[in-house]
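FAQ: What does a multi-protein file look like?

Like this. Sequence, then tokens, then the next protein.
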Amino acid sequence: MSFIEAKNLSKTYGSGDSRQLALNDVSFTIEEGEFVVILGPSGAGKTTLLNMLGGMDTLTGGSIVVNGDELAGLNDNQLTDYRARQVGFVFQFYNLIATLTARENVALCKDIVKNTLDPDEVLEAVGLAVHKSKFPSQLSGGEQQRVAIARALAKNPALILGDEPTGALDASTGASVLQLMQTMSEQRRKTVVIVTHNVVISECADKAIRIKDGRIESITVNACKKHADRITW
């Protein structure tokens, strides 16, 4: 069985004349340790799909199995447990707590899950050991995003989800963040899924899933993917 198996997914919002079909018969698989980019324009359904994978939204139809968990069959408490155990989230705008240091932001996961990674070791892994006592306002955008990635990694999740994680960064900083996430996939066997409208990012992924109008338009496997620091923005 693949790490992620999505079959005939559908998601509908509203009812009657206001009914909106966000996902329509979406199926794909993702293997453990793959770095996958989900591409599509605004309104294509890519963020809805990411929310489904993260257990933050419910299905209207179909099924998603992630690392053995059938998400459609989980109640609210079970979905909360799934998010805590399995998933690390990285968002576009960091979502760090301004009154906590970088280390304290990363260490928060200890209050959520067991078997977390040491926050000092994770911050060192993302190149921020010397900045661990700084507050978010004292860090650059790229450094704050690396703290957000460290926070996601510290949970020691099997799945890392990124919602436009480089969208607020300049090209150089964005490339370094992508390189870090690529390393998590290749060296730590974390399954990484990013949604973006930036086609260039797909060049460093193992697989690119393109969505348009709520449907899968294409799935491309990169036989010769690029290293993140070699792509041109």
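And here is the next protein:
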Amino acid sequence: MVRLRNAGLPDSLRLHYAESGNPAGPAILFLHGWPDSWFSYSRVLPLLPDRYRALVPDQRGFGESDRPEGGYGIPDLAADAAAFLDEVDVTRAAIVGHSFGTFVARRVAEAYPERVTHLVLIGSAFSPVNPVTREVQASLRDLPEPVSLAFAREFQSGTIHLPLPPEFFERLLSESVKLPAHLWRATFEGLLSFDDARELGRIAAPTLLLWGDHDALFSRGEQERLAKAIPNARLRVYPDTGHCPNWERPELVAADLIAFLHGA
């Protein structure tokens, strides 16, 4: 069962979040991709052992969380994540990020290393900037309000390789268009302006990279470069899988996550 709540951070920012599992158990903080919400992990959460406390916020601007005028850089979102952990009384947590969320997750590990027990990056890259992401950025310049389901469908369809359950995919689209057009732009610009190449070596937490070999955004070479840059990192490749293993292969993601947390 997932409980939906709101957390008020010190700057009065309210983050909507889902929670499941044992409130006293080891914490796992899940950070969603762009332009997603907590629902991005809804196929993974039921597969986790009840002993864990899974926390899945809608990041600033996304889903049902507040949408302030600014604060959409990756370091800002990482600070939100640390403040969120404070708000829910979690000292240390495993951090799991998908796509956009991987850059937030690793910034948490760089800036707040004492808060992170393990780091899992699903569909990440050494750098967020490449011809595909530049093309996405260009497509947002004249994106009208409100963002249409058709536009969201075109983008999200391009990130997957395996067919998804129709109800799940339609809900993903509904969550995507909760993000206003100007925040589609602001958050994506914040992503592309982020460069932590010189900070990756500071990541102290054991790190697992999960990547689908049909990822249309980030290449195998990017995974290997990232795994080499982060100390104590290893790469797990999913065959016949796109950019979103947490959508496409939730059973494998949940199993690999739990094995990793158990030290396997």
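Q: Is there any per-entry metadata?
A: Some entries carry free-text notes. For the entry above: The longest strand covers residues 14-21.
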